[in-house]
Amino acid sequence: MNTLKIAVLGTGMMGLPMARRLAQAGHEVHVWNRTRAKAEPLAADGVSIHDSAADAVRGVDFAVSLLESGAIVGEVLFTLGVADAMPKGSLFIDMASIQPREAREHAGKLAALGVRHLDAPVSGGTLGAQAGTLAIMAGGEAADFEHALPVFAALGRATHVGPHGAGQLAKLANQMIVGITIGAVAEALLLAERGGADPAKVREAISGGFADSRILQVHGERMVKHDFAPRGRMTVQLKDMRNAIATAEEVGFDAPITGLLEQLYAEGVKNGLGDLDQAGLFVELQRRNALD
Fold first, then answer.
1. Domain 167-287's class?
2. For the 6-phosphogluconate dehydrogenase NADP-binding domain, which residue ranges apply (predicted)?
3. By C-alpha distance, which of 182, 171, 170 is closest to 261?
4. Which of 91, 145, 177, 224 could bridge across to 200 with cysteines, CB 3.0–4.6 Å?
5. What is the reported pLDDT for 268?
């Protein structure tokens, strides 16, 4: 295997385990995080930690972004000097979840500087990031996707879904399904509880039937155990639902189910649940039904 020089920008809940997997795969990894302390644990894996995002990307083959929003990605690229510092011909892989419009804008600006771009958001959460089993949805040129496969190999299963912005469209579809299904599972389990059934046993009974899903298994278990330690926060799920609604409006698509769930997540965040796991929508529905 060829050793690649890879920068990872953003070492939060997803970025840290992904950077670690890239280092453990034998690559030369350089990282930057706005709060340096969050990146420090990677030093034990031989990762180089930088105080400047621009310094982290100098001389790299690839830069991987795992930042919070499209606005922050744009700031890091074009205000903090990352785009100018990246070598011509290198590949910027944006694995954050942002709006498709933003991904296309970033790709165009980077192309003018001779830097290639993929939008490649992921699904699978922190567990998938740690295990290297993420689902990776990539938008951009087919040749750039092929070039990035050695990076993706350490992180999960990658699929090229179309041109620039298409990876973000796929992630929005993923997050719509996740957010809506969390709501369905939470509401169903709480209805069972209100009616006198044991929600844990109801979840067990319907597992394996048509209502089974990864959400029922993973988030449903968190609900019945009241384990809402954040893996993916309510605030992040709300951001994704809002990005989906904004994109739907741009293309003239009516998404009423997503709109309803966006309102429920927004209400939960307003009521102080923003730092809970996204399964914490269960807590908001508990409150509405006086089951808390």
1. mainly alpha
2. 5-159
3. 182
4. 224
5. 97
